[in-house]
Amino acid sequence: MTRALYAGTFDPPTFGHLDLVARGARLFDHLVVAVAENSRKAPLLTPAERVALIRANTLAHANVEVVTFSGLVVDYAQKNGMDVLLRGLRTVSDFEYEYQMALTNRALEPTIDTAFVMPSQEYAFLSSSLIKEVMSNGGDAARWLPDDVAELVKARLAL
Fold first, then answer.
1. Of residues 17, 50, 87, 132, which has the active-site annotation?
2. What is the pLDDT of residues 84-142, one digit of tens each?
3. What's this model's pTM, rounded to 2 decimal places?
4. Domain limits for position 45
5. Quick one: which of 22, 24, 55, 159 has the most CB atoms within 10 Å?
6. What is the pLDDT of residue 39?
7. Is 61 annotated as catalytic?
8. For the residues 40-60, what does the mean pLDDT come to?
9. Are 12 and 128 in contact (CB under 8 A)?
């Protein structure tokens, strides 16, 4: 049984993230979506809110579990019996960063591999940061978010 870990901040979770979850759910026997509790960032949504939103939007995938974590991704993966780290690649600049991170993770824990998956073309440009920027300036980014996510983001931004 292949267990994969898809980790990120998911602030907010987008259709791009959910596209990657769907792909991971097809590729691996069990996929854990791990929401990072990162004290260095100032997230718009709490970890509990992000977990709840991802759970609500991944119910169609029985082999997907959603958790929170802190610390190094590779440490969490090793402690929880993960075989693979799932990462999305949108752009060439993503590749450079993710390649460096994959090699670092391999050096830290050689038994865990990294699998890179490209999102659907319609989501290749999406990022949570971009969506927050658009919405905080009055733009309509709701088309790139599930309805429940869009409503919470709008409320949080007081739009």
1. 17
2. 999 999 888 889 999 999 999 999 999 999 999 999 999 999 999 999 999 999 999 98
3. 0.94
4. 3-156
5. 24
6. 62
7. no
8. 94
9. yes
CATH number at residue 65: 3.40.50.620
Active site residue 128: yes
Question: Is residue 70 annotated as part of the catalytic site, yes or no?
Answer: no
Active site residue 90: yes
Mean pLDDT of 33-42: 85
pLDDT at 58 over 90: yes
Which residue in the list 3, 90, 154, 156 is annotated as catalytic?
90
Q: How many domains is the chain built from?
A: 1
Query: Among 41, 70, 120, 129, which one carries the catalytic annotation?
Result: 41
